[in-house]
Amino acid sequence: MSVRSGTLTVVIRMTSGDLVAELRGHQWVVRDAGGATVAWISPAGTVWSVSTLLGAADAGRYFTARDALDSLAQLRGAPSLE
Questions:
Q1: Which of 8, 20, 25, 68 gives 20 to 30 Å between its CA and that of 1?
Q2: What is the DSSP string of 25-40?
């Protein structure tokens, strides 16, 4: 959390492996350890879907955004933090 000029800003993040996902509106923006955006996790009805810059993604649908992030981390070869 940070406070600027009397305004409270709350940032919601979750991590898995070397990935950090930050909630922006209704979707999670996923960045690597270097800060580069690598994917987005978005609601798709009752599940979550993954999109990447290259259009490649795990074809699965996920019941939670956490499941989607963990799957991305595993695809990158990083252990998940379950």
A1: 68
A2: TTEEEEE-TTS-EEEE
